[in-house]
Amino acid sequence: xxxxxxxxxxxxxxxxxxxxxxxxxxxxxxxxxxxxxxxxxxxxxxxxxxxxxxxxxxxxxxxxxxxxxxxxxxxxxxxxxxxxxxxxxxxxxxxxxxxxxxxxxxxxxxxxxxxxxxxxxxxxxxxxxxxxxxxxxxxxxxxxxxxxxxxxxxxxxxxxxxxxxxxxxxxxxxxxxxxxxxxxxxxxxxxxxxxxx
Length: 197
Description:
This protein is α+β, with helices and mostly antiparallel strands. 41% of the residues lie in helices and 15% in strands. The protein has helices at residues 6-12, 17-28, 101-116, 133-141, 143-150, 154-165, 170-185, and strands at residues 33-37, 40-45, 48-55, 60-64, 89-93. The longest helix has 16 residues, at 101-116.
């Protein structure tokens, strides 16, 4: 079921309701416009994403779409996928954490100012997807696997290709290939199970 409003998102994540309400109150006290994108609350300036909030199993978070550009307010920022995520940064909150609006407002104000100045980190244009020979051979042997693979997003395709290519030993490549075949056929990404943690 697709979430259509921030209220609905908060109700859907009722174990984090108090924290999400507190974060929302801070965000609503800015000039940012509230909307839903990708099923989560996002706050925009002139149609550009500035901040989002999300609830996960073990924490909730404020996401800064160009958080890597924050220079004055950085102590609480966390890169969820070090080495992969270029622009996004988050501030995580666990149940025992106190949400302090006076601190968060500084981060949000700097993010808004950066957006107003047009500062952003452009996505890196990725090179052509290179399939390892083991994956190509698997596609020749199983056309259904290839069809399922081609229906995945480019990012998921790249994750699988890299997963096989990065293995050093042939035995590891083979065992990884066997592991991912059912995942590909189910339309899953390699790291999907970590998306809601």
